[in-house]
Write a structure and sequence with these properties.
heterodimer; A: alpha/beta; Rossmann fold; 6-stranded mixed beta sheet; 4-stranded antiparallel beta sheet; globular; disordered N terminus; disordered C terminus; B: 11 helices; about 80% helix
Chain lengths: ~290, ~260
């Protein structure tokens, strides 16, 4: 299903050039070619304008099965806007969207604060809206490492426990695509690393595509197959190693970030080309 | 044998307590108490207009409550002023307009105290029929909307992403809320109406492990406070609406203090 939302003529990137954030002096946003019909979800030239401000501009992105795509960028870069526009929660002002027909999306929102005045157990929350999920409660809680908390009150949970419960809710509908908007906000550093490991395992076991939004750097990049660096438009994108060495990434996050990143590299059993497609293993670092 | 007006007062407050509990719970969970307050205060304008046009006061209050709710929803969509400022503006604006209108529109002399603090002993058979008929409709509608309302209360963005339409569900809820506030204004008055919705729910919170249990306990607190408040009103010759709200508030205070 490809629906054309283009109603407004797509503006040239150069029109907005002067108003860009500190990020990019050059506008050579990578383009991905025509919409990839094999992707779970994708967009070409996606733009969202609010009150005359261009929140995201001419963004190309794809997420495939078994692929972790991380959108990274400073505050105000339009990361959440991009995610919401991709899920059709916000109307896009220009661009093309692709969503695999019948795609099931599990969504973990940015701030998962629950209203403390509302008494509700974890189990009740997980089956809210569909009681047929009751049989799956224990399974998804075990999957996110929170098997003990089914009967606890939501209001009593720590930030890390709440994140796991939010993830369990996203999984209970058996999604093909997991969308996580800054999943580690309110979680300490160890919890953060664990959460990314967990997301990696979910991808492996369930074959999920994962679209991850983050403003922090190292661990995220190491666990991603592809990184899209966003500052309203796509500054650069590709495998983590490539993005980390990219001049615009360095400019956006500082040379420290690029150097520190090297410490966190995983040992991949495969490599990627610039578009993220897999290549046979080739020892010896970056391409 | 109780006087008929006393029987009507007991029936009306009991009916209101039952309808108010589920709506009040959603109001508390969704942080809409100030929203409700603003709707209630707009209803004085409805009273004034109804008296000037020689129409039914209950109908005037209902119309004013619905109009205020619609106006708030409309104004909340404009981006330049935040919702609480919109509510503040309407809250004072409509109350002032109502008080000015009661004296300027030249209707019959208005018992302002009766409208501000309620007059449960003046409840007529027609009022009672409206409270029970309308209340049954409201309960059925809330029952139907319950799961989507809970999902929006837990996390509205998540619910929206999962396919719940916040505009549709909240829009319908606001209409139901305006109806119940119009009833509550009749019994507890413009200034105390929202207490009928919110205070029993607050009393129930510490003892509740599920949303439904909270509604059940709030119903019990509302019913008990209504009976105790009416009794107090007769024994001590004090106004009934404030007496009921006082009992509720004491129960809520004790409940929150001991747990």
């Amino acid at each position: 299903m490809t629906d054309l939302v283009t109603g407004i003529a797509r503006t040239s990137p150069h029109h907005t050039h002067g108003r860009q954030a500190s990020c990019c002096d050059h506008h050579h946003a990578p383009t991905l070619g025509p919409l990839d019909q094999t992707a779970l979800i994708g967009a070409r030239g996606l733009s969202v304008v609010r009150d005359g401000r261009r929140l995201i501009d001419n963004v190309d992105i794809d997420v495939h099965e078994r692929e972790i795509v991380t959108v990274i960028g400073p505050n105000g870069a339009g990361k959440t806007t991009l995610v919401k526009a991709l899920m059709s929660l916000l109307p896009a002002d220009a661009g093309e969207l692709h969503k695999r027909p019948g795609l099931r999306i599990g969504y973990v929102p940015q701030r998962f604060d629950v209203e403390r005045a509302l008494p509700m157990t974890v189990e009740r929350f997980l089956i809210l809206g569909d009681r047929r999920h009751r049989a799956k409660v224990a399974g998804v809680l075990a999957e996110v490492g929170a098997e003990q908390i089914a009967s606890r009150q939501l209001a009593e949970l720590s930030g890390g426990e709440l994140q796991r419960v939010a993830l369990a809710r996203a999984l209970i509908g058996n999604p093909q695509l997991l969308v996580l908007d800054e999943p580690v906000s309110g979680v300490d550093y160890t919890g953060e690393a664990e959460l990314y490991d967990l997301i990696g395992r979910l991808r492996d076991h369930r074959g999920l595509g994962v679209l991850l939004v983050s403003h922090d750097l190292h661990v995220v990049m190491a666990s991603s197959d592809r990184v899209v660096c966003l500052s309203r438009h796509v500054c650069c994108s590709g495998v983590p190693e490539t993005v980390a060495g990219h001049p615009e990434y360095v400019q956006l996050f500082g040379p420290e970030a690029a150097r520190a990143f090297g410490l966190y590299l995983h040992h991949h059993d495969h490599r990627h080309d610039l578009a993220g497609a897999e290549r046979p293993p080739a020892p010896g670092g970056n391409q | 044998m109780m006087d008929p007006f006393l029987v009507r007062a007991v029936a009306a407050t009991a009916g209101l307590a039952i309808v108010a509990a589920p709506l009040g719970a959603v109001v508390v969970w969704s942080r809409m108490a100030y929203f409700g307050e603003t709707i209630a205060e707009a209803s004085l304008l409805g009273v004034a207009l109804a008296l000037a046009m020689n129409a039914s006061v209950t109908a005037g209050v209902l119309a004013a409550a619905l109009a205020a709710a619609a106006l708030i929803v409309f104004l909340s969509r404009q981006p330049s002023v935040p919702l609480d400022s919109v509510l503040g503006l309407m809250h004072y604006g409509t109350l002032a307009a109502g008080i000015v209108a009661t004296s300027a529109l030249g209707g019959p002399p208005v018992d302002l105290m009766g409208y501000l603090f309620g007059d449960v002993l003046a409840v007529t058979g027609t009022d009672l029929a409206m409270i029970f008929g309308g209340g049954a409709f409201v309960l059925a509608a809330v029952w139907h909307l319950w799961e989507p309302l809970l999902r929006l209360a837990v996390h509205d963005e998540l619910a929206a992403a999962e396919g719940v339409s916040p505009e549709r569900v909240r829009g319908l809820f606001v209409v139901l809320l305006a109806v119940v506030i119009a009833f509550a204004v009749k019994i507890a008055g413009i200034l105390l109406a929202v207490a009928f919705l919110v205070v029993p729910v607050a009393a129930a919170r510490p003892w509740s492990s599920s949303p439904e249990r909270m509604v059940g306990l709030a119903t019990v607190v509302g019913l008990a406070s209504s009976l105790a408040g009416l009794w107090l009103s007769f024994r001590c010759d004090v106004p009934a609406g404030p007496a009921i709200v006082l009992v509720m508030s004491v129960l809520a205070g004790v409940s929150l203090a001991v747990k």
